[in-house]
Amino acid sequence: MPAPIRLRELIRTIRTARTQAEEREMIQKECAAIRSSFREEDNTYRCRNVAKLLYMHMLGYPAHFGQLECLKLIASQKFTDKRIGYLGAMLLLDERQDVHLLMTNCIKNDLNHSTQYVQGLALCTLGCMGSSEMCRDLAGEVEKLLKTSNSYLRKKAALCAVHVIRKVPELMEMFLPATKNLLSEKNHGVLHTSVVLLTEMCERSPDMLAHFRKNEKLVPQLVRILKNLIMSGYSPEHDVSGISDPFLQVRILRLLRILGKSDDDSSEAMNDILAQVATNTETSKNVGNAILYETVLTIMDIKSESGLRVLAINILGRFLLNNDKNIRYVALTSLLKTVQTDHNAVQRHRSTIVDCLKDLDVSIKRRAMELSFALVNGNNIRGMMKELLYFLDSCDPEFKADCASGVFLAAEKYAPSKRWHIDTIMRVLTTAGSYVRDDSVPNLIQLITNSVEMHAYTVQRLYKALLDDISQQPLVQVASWCIGEYGDLLVSGQCEEEEPIQVTEDEVLDVLEGLLVSNLSAAVTRGYSLTAIMKLSTRFSGVNRIKKVVSIYGSSIDVELQQRAVEYNALFKKYDHMRPALLERMPIMEKSASNGPTEIVQTNGETEPSVVDSKHPPPVSQPANQANDLLDLLGGNDVVPVIQTTVPTKPASAGGELLDLLGDLSLSGVPTPAPSVATSQPSFLLDGLSSQPLFNDIAAAAIPPMTAYNKNGLKIDFTFERANPNPNVAVITIHASNSTEADMTDFVFQAAVPKTFQLQLLSPSSNVVPALNQGTVTQVIRVLNPQKLRMRIKLTYTLKGSPVQDLAEVNNFPPQSWQ
Amino acid sequence: MMRFLLLFSRQGKLRLQKWFTPLTDREKKKVIRDVMALVLARPPRSCNFLHWRDIKVVYKRYASLYFCTGLEDQDNELLTLEVLHRYVELLDKYFGNVCELDIIFNFEKAYYILDEFLMGGEVLETSKVAVSVSMENADTLQETMEEYMNRPAF
């Protein structure tokens, strides 16, 4: 049998193949030759054959028949054989196959070989692909080598130990004694791998972490090594662009991060060195920036002093302005990690971050988008949204869905006004309509329903949008729904917010019917438009056209449309008397939070138990100081509610604050004849109602709820009930929710109304408003209200340790609340 | 730690693959296919980092070869660029003005150099000199044996 061809020759031959088929043929031929050679158990050429096999394996061809041959090579005495054998083992074998266990004995022997390079091979193989069983068997050998004075072996043993620990965490204890002197080595290879080993141990076990902090005094040692690296002169062996051993520096910084996290003493011990590294590192090359990056990450994670943190954020700010894309990318990623904890500091760089939205690089754009959404708050919402909408217009399709969702979420949390909110959503639907999430349509409809005063404006804008373009389905669906609901407002030209357009009923029906027949409309959209047409039958004067449309679709091929049309037809024919009731305006829908933990808004019923007990006026159930405030607001027991001519005999102390609060409230409206009022007004309210159940059932509020206050993350919604027995009393439940990331404690809500009303404030459900909309505080207000209700509210709470106080006027009570 | 290290050409030919986590052959092939597609699709002046699954992919192009590695969350991307650069420098020192052909015809040497520089996904030796010395000594060991046996290395 002729000698097998050499590796180089094979490679050369295969590269001359012009087609895949030719290559396959050559490979098959050679594989056959190799197989027969293996069968002959030829020791001389085994390593040559395995080498060739590895080459073919890299090209993607199967090579499993060489696995046992690798094992034979490993067992050979020749270094060349072992080298190729171990390489083959690493490439062809994996721990899923039992074959690999056969290696264990060889490795064990080689770990004790006289030649360090053979030992090195064994350590390397074990450290790269050793399975848990192998690790268990050989951990003892590795531990022995970890204590050797041979630095070549020691560094390999350290990384091998890392692998063993990753595979079999229980063996960690075993390596502990050997780590004692690792850091006193001079050899950088050993130092580096030791730091990696210590990092692995500290990450995996809190006990180890504590041990290294306290007993071993690891932090000072690391600080010393780092200092030497920085201060030492030029060392040609470890120098990279003027910096001494950046790999070691970065690993030390990373270990310091783990040691300093949540530990004051350790953090303090490393403050100086971190400041030194942060200020002295040369930033002209990538190397320096790599070290700075790691330093910043460490500073942000440990309990560093504020000066250091500011330094870190400023470094990130400088990174953002760097020409190098990689550095900008890294800055954006780090800022994203820190934006929760150091929100204000990151806000300072907002304009730079927003500029990154215009970067050409896809990775940078994505990070900038995520960060921009994290930075949106009540103060910058308008400016940010402008930028984000511009981004939405011009970005690649892969971003549009995420951007649209982000815009919706941000708009929902921070919308400064209903009109702005609706405008923003319309903008998104018109520019990126096909990319929005499925639930955006019902969410938007809900939002529109709830903004009662915007109905005319909304339907007008949607109608105009429909005239322009009917291809974006979510927009079309929302528009048809609105036209169906508020078509009467549309044709009557009632819009307050902008110039009302002249639209006739026929034009509206034209548009809706156009949707039904258009090829661009999805089946769902057609359903929406048919229903909208039907609803207009109670809102428009001319019903015949609608009847015709409905009857035509009674024979539609689309089953859904057909069913709807048939039912609507029946409505016209047999149940015409029910039609108005069925098709009347939709009531307000209960809103559930769309972001974060869903918290269904507490309905009045839930607060009942707590309120039943505290029927007494506030002074009794609330702490004394609160009682005084409330007395101030309400003028105590002596306030005469209604008759204007009588001067109220208020205690002097109450006067100041009361006047402050109510001074500006213009008391419009004629007071109706006061109910025969007893001297003590709180008990009057009580007397009338004490025997009644306090609240109605929640048949959907006939009075729509409203948002009374929404600022700095605190949002107060009012929901209304009519106390049944006395329709002159409106029961308002306030729901306070908090979208910031910290709880609001000591939350106190106070309200004052003009003298023409009487108001009673019952005790709140709690005085802590949990963060991130995780819960609401509710409180019940009862108002005796003959006319248009206005209220001034005062809020006090503590957020992140600092007290906050705010006054606001609430004017947007829905008309039904005082009729 | 690094999860893998791949070297491939612009035409999508794999020149070196080092895996630091256990994966089946099928999984490996999938990773190679996906990562190669992502990296080769990048425009020339893009940033060297991208996100794939839960891995940060760092890649750098040197002449006709892409050096590409997958990192875990804690790893420093900028430093990894230095790691890739160091590997290229080591190859350059060993082969003398290394080019893709050197790596094709001497792939096993490229692996040996890699194994002196990295292990288990971490940097093993930070000194260029030390790695070169180890390679020289190991090669001498090989030659000596071969001379002794009077046979050519494969």
From TrEMBL, chain A:
> Could you give a single Gene Ontology term from the biological process aspect?
intracellular protein transport
Per the record, its GO cellular-component terms are: AP-1 adaptor complex
Give the matching InterPro entries: Adaptor_Complx_Large_Subunit, AP1_complex_gsu, ARM-like, ARM-type_fold, Clathrin/coatomer_adapt-like_N, Clathrin_a/b/g-adaptin_app_Ig, Clathrin_app_Ig-like_sf, GAE_dom
* Domain of life (superkingdom): Eukaryota
PROSITE patterns membership: GAE
Q: Name one Pfam family in it.
A: Alpha_adaptinC2
UniProt topology in membrane: Peripheral membrane protein
Instruction: Please report which protein family the annotation says this sequence is part of.
Output: Belongs to the adaptor complexes large subunit family.
The protein's name is AP-1 complex subunit gamma
Q: From which source organism is this entry? A: Gasterosteus aculeatus aculeatus (three-spined stickleback)
From TrEMBL, chain B:
Name of the protein = AP complex subunit sigma
Principal location listed in the UniProt entry: membrane
InterPro entries in the record: AP1_sigma, AP_complex_ssu, AP_mu_sigma_su, Clathrin_sm-chain_CS, Longin-like_dom_sf
Q: Where is the AP complex mu/sigma subunit domain?
A: 1-140
Protein family: Belongs to the adaptor complexes small subunit family.
- Membrane topology value: Peripheral membrane protein
**Subunit composition and interactions:** Adaptor protein complex 1 (AP-1) is a heterotetramer composed of two large adaptins (gamma-type subunit AP1G1 and beta-type subunit AP1B1), a medium adaptin (mu-type subunit AP1M1 or AP1M2) and a small adaptin (sigma-type subunit AP1S1 or AP1S2 or AP1S3).
**Which GO molecular function terms does the record list?**
clathrin adaptor activity
* Superkingdom as given in the UniProt entry: Eukaryota
Source organism per entry reads Gasterosteus aculeatus aculeatus (three-spined stickleback)
GO BP annotations of the record are: intracellular protein transport
Q: Where in the cell is it found?
A: Cytoplasmic vesicle membrane; Golgi apparatus; Membrane, Clathrin-coated pit
Which keywords, in A-to-Z order, does the entry hold? Coated pit, Cytoplasmic vesicle, Golgi apparatus, Membrane, Protein transport, Transport
**Would you name any one GO CC term?**
AP-1 adaptor complex
